Amino acid sequence: MNASISIDETDRNIVEQLRRNGRATNQQIAETLGLTATTVSARIRRMEEANQLRVVAVSDFAAHGYNFLMEVAIEVDGRPASDVAHELCRFPEVFAAHVVTGRYDIDILVALRDFDDLSHLLLDKFSQISGIRSMTPSIVVDIIKYQFDVAPIEI
Amino acid sequence: MAKAQLDELDRQLVDLLARDARVSNRRIAAELGVTEGTVRGRIKRLQQDGLISFTAITSFSMAKNSRLAFVSVQAEVENVRAIARQIADISPINAVMITMGQFNILAMCLFDDLDTLVTVASDQILALPGVHHVETSIAVRTMKYDTRLAKITPSDVTE
């Protein structure tokens, strides 16, 4: 799964170019870095096949009509936290779910279209999952920074 | 947040590109049954409107900083925006949101060793004027993480 391939300077330079513009052609990248288009293409394919790299379109929350983000910290009782987290992942509104250390057991990020969806999600959907002792939501009122170009590709 | 929404063709286009952004316009056109010109025009508009952006995502194992922590901050309400911006400038911090709830700032930090996390949370953030309290929580298991969704800020929009 996670075939550890060695990543050299050339690979890193190619990734850097792709971070700036994921749609740059192999030829454009090759010219910038003084390589051949064949090398660029082969390097990208190798990293992709080893699950080390994905070149993707990222879309804004607003593009999907998600106007409303929320973090929910969850305490679990009497059930493995991973099992509860697994059930939470089934909801499309949950776009990130982590089992965490500290005061709470699970941290999820939720995207909603409007405020009415909130009560439905918390009271009708999440409340049906057994093992949730408490949910502490925080409403996101502004996003100052959101830069995730590193992610667990393997999952 | 007054951004335009996607229509059906935009959505199909975004779905295709979210899987692999390097697929050619010609292939997209063939798959969606539209012309290459339409594909090119749509992509350009979506980029200009800040609705999509193309980037490389690398796996945690390839990155220097491969662990994720949530840093929840209680900061002075009247200066919360300024404090959030200062936190955003700390380099291992990848996301900063202003929230309403028990804490008023939620930051996410990518780190490699605990010392880095302690330096960021307990030294740098806690030392900022107006910050009253910091709690960290380390993600030990990622169950879901949708990289296709993000907040596209003006610096991400390529010309």
In CATH terms, what is the architecture of the largest domain in chain A?
A: 2-Layer Sandwich
Structural class of chain B, please?
Answer: alpha+beta
Mean pLDDT of chain B: 87
Strand line-up across the major sheet of chain B:
3-4-2-5
Features:
heterodimer; A: 155 residues; alpha+beta; Arc Repressor Mutant, subunit A; Alpha-Beta Plaits; 2 domains; 4-stranded antiparallel β-sheet; 5 helices; 6 strands; 31% strand; elongated; B: 159 residues
Describe it:
The complex is a heterodimer of chains A (155) and B (159). Chain A is α+β, with helices and mostly antiparallel strands and 155 residues long. Chain A has helices at 9-20, 26-33, 37-49, 81-89, 116-125; strands spanning 53-60, 68-76, 94-100, 106-112, 132-146, 150-151. Chain A has two domains: 9-49, Arc Repressor Mutant, subunit A (Orthogonal Bundle), CATH 1.10.10.10; 61-140, Alpha-Beta Plaits. Chain A is built from five helices and six strands. The model of chain A has no long low-confidence stretch (mean pLDDT 88). Chain B is an alpha+beta fold and 159 residues long. Chain B folds into two domains: 8-48, Winged helix-like DNA-binding domain superfamily/Winged helix DNA-binding domain (Arc Repressor Mutant, subunit A, Orthogonal Bundle); 60-138, Lrp/AsnC effector binding domain/regulation of amino acid metabolism (RAM) domain (Alpha-Beta Plaits, 2-Layer Sandwich), CATH 3.30.70. Helices cover 34% and strands 31% of the residues of chain B. Chain B is built from five helices and six strands. A four-stranded antiparallel beta sheet of chain B has the order 3-4-2-5, covered by helices on one side. In chain B, helix 2 packs across helix 3. Chain B is elongated, with a radius of gyration of 19 Å. The chains are: A alpha+beta (155), B alpha+beta (159). Chains A and B meet through helix 1, strand 1, helix 4, strand 3 and strand 5 of A and helix 1, strand 1, helix 4, strand 3 and strand 5 of B. Strand 5 (132-146) of chain A pairs antiparallel with strand 3 (93-100) of chain B.
